[in-house]
Design goal:
Helix 7 runs antiparallel to helix 8 and helix 14 runs antiparallel to helix 16. The chain is globular, with a radius of gyration of 22 Å. About 50% of the residues are buried. About 40% of the residues lie in helices and about 5% in strands. A two-stranded antiparallel ribbon has the order 1-3. It has a two-stranded antiparallel ribbon with strand order 2-8. It has a two-stranded antiparallel ribbon with strand order 4-7. By secondary structure, the protein is mainly α. The longest helix is centred in the N-terminal third of the chain and has 26 residues. The two termini are about 30 Å apart.
């Protein structure tokens, strides 16, 4: 984004930045991710820098634990012995859960900063070229829409906060209106973002179309989803052949497959700008990070492991299993060979492991610059297949099969001539494991179907060193499984959150 405005004085800059760090009072949770003048990259205007910071800073706590805890562990993709995640593992999350609260506050921080940036741009509208003004608003509304998309799918009815300085105790709004609000934001982004990104990793019209397509798919609006995706397919994005590079190689961030990703920056002296995932994922005792982190908190569930087909090239890049050799890890020592003794489920995750600080200059304690991909091209392809399936049990539609098989071919798997509903969702589970998608995919299947699936998933562990004695565990979710409780701290500050949701006044 390039904005031409008169240089701001340092006083104005500090004021502008501090305004963006404010959190809505009803959240009652001050942000740890306050923006400072030091956050502004050299040679850019404050508006440029603040817009760029929205690709990472306010999303920090969302990414730190919440995304994987909700999107994967809660749905049965991951196992853990860590007590902090026990409620997610057992699908019994309470309103006092700190990880739940952190994610909720983080998502509203995105909304808060988007609203504040729009307010500040409005105040200086006369100094901005129209295209720059619209672009600034469009980025803000795109980010706000994504935050609300996660909120409504996780919590159901939530308050719509559309302006900086809104009422400190807003009521929740009905789910239908939250989705309408999201669509309006994304439609504005489609109409006002540039056709192509002005910087690698920045969003554009195509990215906004992709997110809006997923919103339509979530609402079973299959024709609208397919129509938008047809505008995305065959354009500036495509699959890359090296699946693993998207998750373990920061130098390959923002590849042709990545449409929208959180743009992390590992800085030794700063907290809240980095991706912390590696610290939780690296097998405990493996020495891969070379430091005090690497705790093996997230372990692949036995159910997830069993979901891989023989010959699936994604497996070694997604999970580590006994005997797998990784020359790129601990390379100065000749590489790393995984042994099942590292994990009670006989496997560890491989995604989001970058390496050690001794071998890389962009890794520090609990810090890497590895992007978190929110939307990538394989998702576009599989969404298109799902939209063509249109809620049915199977299809032989050529366009649906072509999109679906493109993902399978990259994985080294044989193509299929009939696409079934089960095939599609099994493919999604493997393709996006540990990317925070599985829970939301199950939710699209509907409660009864999802409960039948989840209750058959093995999420236990092995009790012996040989990993042969299974302590079996299966979870049967309750009827409220698909709507997690609102954080109690938010309710304590704003009791109106317990009242029935109301329509939103779009006027």
């Amino acid at each position: 984004m390039k904005i031409f405005i008169k240089p701001l004085s340092i006083v104005m800059l500090i004021t502008l930045v501090s305004l963006l760090s404010c959190s809505d009072e009803f959240l009652d949770a001050p942000s740890e991710n306050q923006l400072t003048p030091a956050d502004l990259p050299e040679g850019v205007t404050p508006f440029d820098g603040i817009a760029e910071s929205m690709y990472f800073k306010p999303w920090f706590a969302f990414n730190d634990k919440f995304l994987i805890a909700v999107g994967d562990m809660y749905a049965g993709n991951a196992f853990t012995f860590d007590g902090a995640f026990q409620q997610f593992k057992e699908a019994q999350v309470t309103s006092q859960n700190p990880i739940l609260t952190e994610g909720y506050v983080s998502l509203f921080s995105v909304i808060d900063q988007a609203n504040n940036l729009m307010s500040l741009v409005e105040e200086r509208k006369d100094e901005l070229p129209e295209a720059s003004y619209k672009n600034s608003i469009a980025i803000s509304r795109f980010m706000r829409a994504n935050a609300y998309f996660y909120l409504v799918r996780t919590f159901g009815a939530v308050p719509i906060v559309a302006n900086a300085g809104s009422a400190s105790q807003p009521k929740r709004n009905i789910i239908e209106d939250v989705y309408t609000f999201i669509k309006l934001d994304l439609q504005y982004a489609i109409e006002n973002l540039p056709e192509t990104s002005v910087k690698r990793g920045y969003v554009n019209q195509t990215v906004a179309k992709g997110i809006l397509a997923k919103v339509h798919l979530t609402l079973n609006e299959y024709a609208e989803c397919a129509s938008l995706i047809e505008e995305v397919m065959g354009g500036q994005y495509s699959l890359i052949q090296d699946y693993g590079k998207m998750f373990s190689s920061p130098e390959d961030n923002n590849s042709s497959e990545s449409l929208f990703a959180l743009q992390w920056k590992a800085i030794a002296t700063q907290w809240g700008t980095q991706n912390t995932n590696q610290a939780y994922i690296v097998p405990a005792g493996s020495g891969i990070t070379g430091g005090g982190d690497g705790w093996g908190v997230y372990l692949p569930s036995i159910s997830l492991q069993n979901g891989f087909e023989n010959g699936d090239l994604r497996k070694k890049h997604t999970i580590m299993t006994d005997g797998d050799f990784y020359p790129e890890l601990l390379s100065s020592s000749g590489g790393f060979t995984y042994e099942k003794i590292y994990s009670a489920t006989a496997a560890n995750f491989r995604k989001y492991i970058v390496g050690s600080a001794a071998e890389r200059n962009d890794v520090f304690f609990m810090r890497t610059s590895q992007n978190t991909i929110i939307l990538r091209y394989s998702d576009i392809l599989l969404m298109y297949a799902e939209a063509k399936l249109a809620g049915g049990n199977s299809t032989t539609d050529g366009a649906a099969l072509n999109a679906y098989n493109e993902v399978r071919i990259r994985a080294g798997l044989p193509i299929k001539t009939i696409l079934t509903r089960d095939d599609l969702f099994k493919e999604r589970r493997i393709e996006f494991a540990l990317e925070g998608q599985y829970f939301f995919d199950l939710k699209r299947r509907g409660l009864s179907e999802a409960i039948a699936i989840i209750s058959q998933q093995e999420v236990g562990f092995y009790s012996d060193d040989e990993r042969t004695i299974l302590v079996s565990t299966m979870i049967t979710p309750g009827s409220n499984y698909f709507e997690l409780p609102l954080p109690q701290s938010a309710i304590d500050t704003n009791p109106s959150l317990t009242e029935p949701p109301v329509p939103y006044n779009f006027n």
